[in-house]
Amino acid sequence: LKKDADRFSSAEIKLSVVNPNKVTPEGVSPNNYVTYAPYFHPKCDLPLAEAVTKCEWTRKDGDRNGELKKLSSDSSVLNKVCDQVRILSVANFWFDDTKYADRATALLKEFFLDNATAMAPNFDYSQIAPGPKASKGRSYGLIQSRCMAYMLTAATLLKQNGTNQEVYDGMKNWVKEFVQWMTTSEIGKGAISADNNHGTSATIQLASYYLFLEQPDQAKKAIESFMSGAFQKQIAKDGSQPKEINRADGIHYSLMNLSLLATLGYLGDLVGFDVWNQKTSAGATIADAVKYLSKYATGAESWPKSTDQPKGFTHMLQIAAEKYGDPDGTYLEAIQKIGQLPWADDNVANLYADFSYGFNGTKKC
Prior knowledge:
Elements: H1 2-9, E1 34-36, E2 40-42, H2 48-54, E3 57-59, H3 74-95, H4 98-113, E4 125-128, H5 147-160, H6 165-184, H7 186-193, H8 197-212, H9 216-228, H10 242-245, H11 250-271, H12 286-297, H13 313-324, H14 330-338, H15 348-353
Parallel strand pairs: 1-4
Antiparallel strand pairs: 2-3
Helix pairs in contact: 1-3, 1-4, 3-4, 3-5, 4-6, 5-8, 6-7, 6-8, 7-8, 8-9, 8-11, 9-11, 11-12, 12-13, 13-14
GO molecular function: lyase activity
Organism: Dispira parvispora
InterPro entries: Alginate_lyase_dom (IPR008397), Chondroitin_lyas (IPR008929)
């Protein structure tokens, strides 16, 4: 943690969505977050910057087009800001070194608040589908902002350690505007109502943003709405996730959504709503989804479309044992079969920065 924080605190690289090399739809402000849908491929030989608006494109699920990242680095930059603010915020808390807080504050100002470099509080142009009509984003793009929910959790530590109040207030105003956009725009509402991993991610974000704004009742309403709506279609009676398993990389998306549901479970704990034992319309819970994936993670069965095993599944087994108990040692046995300790595949940011909004500031593991 300290090694990474030292590296980030001494960095002088500017991190902003404002980039002269970014290719945006005509008339779009450089302050807008812009990305292109990753699974699209051109049906012509024009240079990429021209093909994005002049050619027909085709979607190939699971086949990422890395060339599209050359049009915009906004997703990469946002993730860097999120990771660095998280690590610096937690490092400042543990090591009482103001240089970490100073750099984290500077990153927040530069990326979210300073007029010349700030990202506008919307995702109107995220995951644009390339082609002659490439002018607006899609609801799928909102999943790219999920790192902000985790970043803001850690950023609350800056306030506890006396960070710049003006910056903290500025972030609250920015988040308030982003929530307004999420709950009123077609893109935002589309993401929130989605019955797959996109809906789960959007609900995590919405609940987290409400908690950051000190509105726990609104956070609870967001979770309740999701659990009584989109969640009802997410887990089948056998524990499979119908909206995820048919993807080209179904095992990855199944674990991804399961991990997101676990995060939502912890958020539910904070606001007094039991996500863990909620049942879908098929009568299944998160525990059933864990059981379903466990047989593939341990190698007991092979995934129909792939020999891949879900990476990082020990994390979910640990969570399941915590929330549902493990009286017969089923979860522990699965962890031992996989042969990887929980968290071993996660980076230091996850290990040290998963503080909840209920965190009371005590330096205690």
